[in-house]
């Protein structure tokens, strides 16, 4: 089973299923800091967890960067056309060169990775499978890393927030912090959106720092400071965006900790790449942040709300699968 840190773990009766890489970005180059502790929190119960994450970044982030450079944790097969099931596209291609993503040549994909993915079918999806497994095309998340491509993803995000997110009842007035698992779901989705926004802002800043001229016809956003305040600022379009990003990070860390023993078992069996991959992953799994009880604030909140009704877990799982299906395509093109 190919699992890595930085993955979104989707719980299922048969165990943990590999999903798309989710990275926790940082914004550098003189831009405002992303620490949510710099501003008032809407949910004060997250404060200690946010502080713990901030304190751990300097030691955890280098390990994650080292891990993602290894073949076993950078090559993934995915369906770039997955979102077409939800959002039909016009029949023409985007001709922006920066959006081009090409699969890895088959001979360049290690056989152990292909074998592991081919054999990964013993998990159970509520007794049935909704979709086929991903295609045989592998993509390199380092060769085609997160970047500012100029792609306008507003239609995709509008679909995600409007059709997959929740707005009825208490969510009509308190979308992210109402006393409901649906608000928790909205908060986690907003956190994913904030991660992408941070990567876009960093991409703009990096291009400008490298002396690139951003043609407004290809790159609609050219001012990283303006985009930071619009997308992530406390007075921006989503004042809670950075807090929500930490909320999502806490859920991710809790998921990694839950999967830790299984991951260690896979390391012992020799199913996790080479020795370097095993050692790097084990060093991440041993990081003190995973054992810090303050990071449980998000998962406790979500779990308590979800367990109020037996149907909640089912609906949460199905909405999450729809979200991951749409994001499967979108993460490659922002």
Automatic annotation (TrEMBL):
Its main location: endoplasmic reticulum. Keywords: Disulfide bond, Electron transport, Endoplasmic reticulum, FAD, Flavoprotein, Glycoprotein, Membrane, Oxidoreductase, Redox-active center, Signal, Transport. Its cofactor is FAD. InterPro entries: Ero1, ERO1-like_sf. It is a peripheral membrane protein. It is found in: Endoplasmic reticulum membrane. Pfam families: ERO1 (PF04137). GO terms for cellular component: endoplasmic reticulum membrane. One of its GO terms (molecular function) is FAD binding. One of its GO terms (biological process) is protein folding in endoplasmic reticulum. Belongs to the EROs family. PANTHER family: ERO1-LIKE PROTEIN, ERO1-RELATED. May function both as a monomer and a homodimer. This is Uncharacterized protein. It comes from Thalassiosira oceanica.
